[in-house]
């Protein structure tokens, strides 16, 4: 729904009408709808209208993978988790993630940026929860409860798009379970 607004190049008033009045995201409050729309828009703006069209008009598989690619581009934390933890577990034939994998990853990140350790416990937990939910929705784990990893095959259209736009980092992240 957000990609269609971006593709239609709606103005500020049309955006507000769709998000806050029509509540196209089906959120409980206009504040929640605005926050969610802003997050989605920020992620999508890291990519091109060509990818937006794949999200708006493609199959569910293509749309999910395109959204996952945008999430990785928007969040180096997510991408590096895919490369450093998910891929390593897969390479070692370990087919399950654990909460300690996330904690170890955050400690590794803190060695590079000590500011991460200033994140409150609820913030760290929320970020982990969001990352695992994204992995589940993208088909890299079976659920946020069991954290069993699944082999993910990248759709040829997404792979072609990423290659043609020199998004090799994103492609490597998405190939973590191949």
Short description:
With 178 residues, the chain is an all-alpha fold.
Question: What features would you highlight for this structure?
Answer:
178 residues; 10 helices; mainly alpha; single chain
Give a description of the structure.
By secondary structure, this protein is mainly alpha-helical. Helices cover 66% and strands 0% of the residues. The protein has ten helices and no strands. It has helices at 2-7, 12-21, 30-44, 49-57, 60-74, 76-91, 99-112, 121-137, 156-164, 168-174. The chain starts with a helix and ends with a helix. The mean pLDDT is 94.
Secondary-structure class: mainly alpha
Instruction: Assign an overall shape.
Output: globular
Portion in strands: under 5%
Find the count of extended strands (DSSP E, 2+ residues): 0
* H/E element order: HHHHHHHHHH
- Whole-angstrom Rg: 17 Å
> Helix fraction?
55-70%
What's the end-to-end separation, in Å?
Answer: 31 Å
| Major sheet characteristics | none
Low-confidence stretches: none
Rounded average pLDDT: 94
Number of helices: 10
List the helices and strands and how they pair.
Layout: H1 2-7, H2 12-21, H3 30-44, H4 49-57, H5 60-74, H6 76-91, H7 99-112, H8 121-137, H9 156-164, H10 168-174
Helix pairs in contact: 2-3, 4-5, 5-6, 5-10, 6-10
């Amino acid at each position: 729904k957000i990609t269609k607004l971006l593709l239609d190049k709606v103005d500020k008033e049309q955006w507000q009408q769709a998000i806050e009045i029509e509540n196209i995201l089906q959120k409980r409050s206009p504040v929640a709808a605005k926050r969610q729309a802003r997050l989605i828009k920020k992620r999508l703006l890291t990519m091109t209208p060509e990818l937006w069209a794949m999200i708006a008009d493609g199959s569910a598989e293509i749309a999910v993978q395109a959204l996952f690619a945008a999430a990785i581009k928007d969040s180096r934390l997510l991408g590096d988790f895919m490369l450093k933890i998910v891929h390593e577990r897969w390479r070692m034939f370990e087919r399950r993630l654990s909460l300690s994998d996330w904690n170890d990853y955050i400690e590794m990140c803190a060695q590079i940026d000590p500011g991460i350790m200033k994140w409150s416990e609820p913030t760290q937990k929320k970020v982990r929860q969001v990352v695992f939910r994204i992995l589940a929705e993208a088909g890299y784990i079976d659920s946020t409860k069991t954290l069993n990893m699944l082999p993910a095959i990248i759709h040829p259209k997404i792979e072609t798009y990423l290659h043609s736009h020199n998004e090799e980092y994103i492609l490597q992240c998405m190939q973590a379970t191949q």
